[in-house]
Design brief:
With 171 residues, the chain is mainly α. It has one domain (3-158): Arp2/3 complex 21 kDa subunit ARPC3 (Orthogonal Bundle). Helix content is 67%, strand content 0%. The protein has helices spanning 3-18, 36-45, 50-67, 73-88, 97-121, 130-158. The N and C termini lie far apart (32 Å).
Length: 171
């Protein structure tokens, strides 16, 4: 992997995530937007070496926390879930678009739930619509993969991510 290109890619995605451009695509009165950094974490966690995937997950979590307060919950949730995805890819093969959509949706549910919980421990108030926002963000992030997956795949080729061979457990 070319790390300088990865840094540029994460900066572009983070800027896009924080910009008004995604506000144009927000749905409902809850302002639900896709989490592009979540898509990056899931896709790279199943494609890269485990060591690289763990670093990528923590960096994407940091970038997500820099967008909005508090600092810390997304670092922890993206780091933990990205590490788990990187280590279970030998048990569960996530190659097809359908499996990737399911992985993004489930990881989105878990990551946002965990980060909201951690934020509440830090004193951030929970809103009445927290469950709807979590579900909507995870669903929107998964659906956006169907439309922008080709763009992410091309970007990952630019960063020189080579598909890491999957080791399966034989009995």
């Amino acid at each position: 992997m070319r790390w300088p290109r990865f840094v540029v890619f994460i900066l572009v995605i983070t800027t896009l995530q924080a910009s008004i451009i995604l506000d144009w695509f927000a749905v409902t009165n809850l302002n639900i937007k896709p989490d592009l950094l979540l898509v990056v974490v899931v896709f790279l966690a199943v494609r890269c070496r485990s060591y690289d995937a763990i670093i990528i997950s923590f960096v994407a979590g940091l970038a997500s926390d820099l967008i909005g307060p508090p600092i810390g919950p997304h670092i922890i949730s993206f780091g933990i879930l990205g590490s788990i995805l990187a280590h279970i890819r030998g048990l569960v093969i996530i190659n097809s678009a359908f499996h990737q959509v399911i992985a993004i949706f489930l990881t989105g549910l878990l990551a946002e739930s965990l980060s909201r919980f951690l934020a509440s421990l830090a004193g951030q108030p929970m809103t009445a619509n927290t469950a709807g926002i979590i579900f909507g963000t995870a669903l929107y992030s998964a659906v956006i993969w169907l439309f922008l997956g080709w763009l992410f795949t091309a970007s990952f080729r630019w960063i020189s991510i080579k598909r890491h061979p999957i080791r399966t457990i034989h009995r």
